[in-house]
């Protein structure tokens, strides 16, 4: 039987340290020591931890109904299929979509590659006529931003290279903010695709989605939203945002690795050519040709990530029951505490919005005279887990004059004590390295 999250018995109007400590009881991994110190986990921007209810949901599938979906007529196969499709309905509802608009993928990177390869297939000779809106030709343009994760940059680079389209990008200023005036000049009649992050995994910036969507709609441009850093941390309604596509990653929102999702407007998905082909995505096959199922199945060839999808639905339920608005509010408190505390330390440069300005609950920073990897090792020795490196955003770091930073990222199971532990440790970095 799947456990009921203990904190749900004590929910309050807003999250606070007391409730967060109860939430932590749902996460076994957080109750351990690292190097003789209590673990302070501040790396959820890379991978979040799993509550017991999610772990047990996946275990229960293997114990009770493990079988291939959409293939067998026996009891276990029917049970597995029903659980699999119920999970799709849950995750689709979590982002404000219909179940036939949600495609399972292994991760957000695969979802973005699915789009780029489908658009490539639409651009090939002999592509179905209905896929013409997704075809790119010489002279067409794809627009991204300078703050993108590599997963939302490289697939578009490859698509541009293979189709003859031009890849352009909206620059950021010295503070890391998008230049919207330049965006208005760049997004024009030739822009076929606009792809951008909802929340930067380096800057913590929340992108002005409405402004960018308005620019795209004026040019009949397809909009692709990277929601990896927003879906886990704030209410998300893809219909209200009016984006054409959105991607998310399960392991960043309390679910296991190996599961992600692509949202696409139903009319788009049903007109796009498939990316992977094989079993489970066809209606009729002869030795000469095949006909494909409607979306989402046409993009789900082969054996699916069944237990992971069910676990992702459990994670979505956990987040919904906790309250996405409450989570976002609490992480805003933690993010502001991070930025204010780090900015007050000598020799520390914090990237992204300044204290008091809107951001998600993460902060990437540079310690003058100390490499980010050394900072990370120093913090790890004190039981504090953070991310170091370029965070899969080399162009952004290069624009800001850096090669690497240290990033602390919070989630619903972090307290203000966690943030204060980081601040106290960072305060000693430069003296430790004799800078």
TrEMBL record:
<dbReference type="InterPro" id="IPR010970">
    <property type="entry name" value="Cys_dSase_SufS"/>
</dbReference>
<keyword id="KW-0456">Lyase</keyword>
<dbReference type="InterPro" id="IPR015424">
    <property type="entry name" value="PyrdxlP-dep_Trfase"/>
</dbReference>
<keyword id="KW-0808">Transferase</keyword>
<dbReference type="InterPro" id="IPR015421">
    <property type="entry name" value="PyrdxlP-dep_Trfase_major"/>
</dbReference>
<dbReference type="GO" id="GO:0016829">
    <property type="term" value="F:lyase activity"/>
</dbReference>
<dbReference type="GO" id="GO:0031071">
    <property type="term" value="F:cysteine desulfurase activity"/>
</dbReference>
<dbReference type="InterPro" id="IPR020578">
    <property type="entry name" value="Aminotrans_V_PyrdxlP_BS"/>
</dbReference>
<keyword id="KW-0663">Pyridoxal phosphate</keyword>
<dbReference type="InterPro" id="IPR000192">
    <property type="entry name" value="Aminotrans_V_dom"/>
</dbReference>
<comment type="similarity">
    <text>Belongs to the class-V pyridoxal-phosphate-dependent aminotransferase family. Csd subfamily.</text>
</comment>
<protein>
    <recommendedName>
        <fullName>Cysteine desulfurase</fullName>
        <ecNumber>2.8.1.7</ecNumber>
    </recommendedName>
</protein>
<comment type="function">
    <text>Catalyzes the removal of elemental sulfur and selenium atoms from L-cysteine, L-cystine, L-selenocysteine, and L-selenocystine to produce L-alanine.</text>
</comment>
<dbReference type="Pfam" id="PF00266">
    <property type="entry name" value="Aminotran_5"/>
</dbReference>
<feature type="domain" description="Aminotransferase class V">
    <location>
        <begin position="40"/>
        <end position="422"/>
    </location>
</feature>
<dbReference type="GO" id="GO:0006534">
    <property type="term" value="P:cysteine metabolic process"/>
</dbReference>
<dbReference type="InterPro" id="IPR015422">
    <property type="entry name" value="PyrdxlP-dep_Trfase_small"/>
</dbReference>
<dbReference type="GO" id="GO:0030170">
    <property type="term" value="F:pyridoxal phosphate binding"/>
</dbReference>
């Amino acid at each position: 039987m799947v456990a009921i999250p203990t904190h749900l018995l004590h929910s309050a109007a807003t999250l606070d340290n007391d409730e967060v400590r109860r939430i932590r009881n749902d996460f076994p991994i957080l109750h351990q020591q690292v190097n003789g110190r209590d673990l302070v986990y501040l790396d959820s921007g890379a991978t979040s931890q799993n509550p017991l209810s999610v772990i047990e949901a996946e275990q229960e599938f293997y114990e009770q109904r493990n079988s291939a979906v959409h293939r067998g007529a026996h009891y276990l196969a029917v049970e597995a299929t029903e659980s699999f499709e119920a999970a799709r309905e849950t995750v689709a509802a979590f982002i404000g979509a219909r179940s036939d608009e949600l495609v399972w993928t292994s991760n957000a990177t695969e979802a973005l590659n699915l789009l780029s390869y489908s658009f490539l297939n639409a651009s090939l000779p002999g592509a179905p006529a209905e896929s013409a809106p997704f075809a790119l030709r010489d002279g067409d343009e794809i627009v991204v931003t300078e703050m993108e994760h590599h997963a939302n940059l490289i697939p578009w680079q490859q698509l541009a290279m293979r189709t003859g389209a031009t890849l352009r990008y909206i620059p950021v200023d010295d503070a890391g903010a998008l230049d919207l005036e330049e965006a208005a000049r760049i997004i024009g009649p030739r822009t076929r695709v606009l792809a951008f992050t909802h929340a930067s995994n380096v800057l913590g910036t929340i992108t002005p989605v409405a402004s960018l969507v308005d620019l795209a709609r004026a040019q009949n441009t397809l909009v692709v939203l990277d929601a990896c850093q927003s879906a886990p941390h704030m209410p998300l309604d893809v219909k209200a945002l009016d984006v054409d596509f959105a991607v998310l990653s399960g392991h960043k929102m309390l679910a296991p690795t190996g599961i992600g999702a692509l949202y696409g407007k139903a009319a788009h998905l049903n007109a796009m050519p498939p990316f992977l082909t094989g079993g489970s995505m066809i209606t009729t096959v002869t030795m000469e040709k095949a006909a494909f199922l409607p979306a989402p199945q046409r993009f789900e060839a082969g054996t699916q990530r069944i237990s992971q999808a069910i676990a992702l639905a459990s994670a979505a339920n956990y987040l919904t029951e906790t309250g996405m608005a409450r989570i976002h509010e609490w992480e805003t408190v933690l993010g502001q505490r991070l930025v204010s505390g780090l900015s007050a330390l000598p020799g520390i440069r914090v990237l992204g919005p300044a204290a008091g300005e809107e951001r998600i609950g993460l902060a990437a920073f540079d310690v003058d005279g100390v490499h980010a990897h050394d900072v990370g090792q120093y913090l790890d020795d004190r039981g504090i887990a953070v991310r170091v490196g370029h965070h899969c955003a080399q162009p952004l770091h290069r624009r800001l004059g850096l090669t690497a930073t240290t990033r602390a990222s919070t989630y619903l199971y972090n307290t203000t004590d966690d943030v204060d532990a980081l601040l106290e440790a960072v305060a000693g970095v430069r003296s430790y390295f004799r800078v």
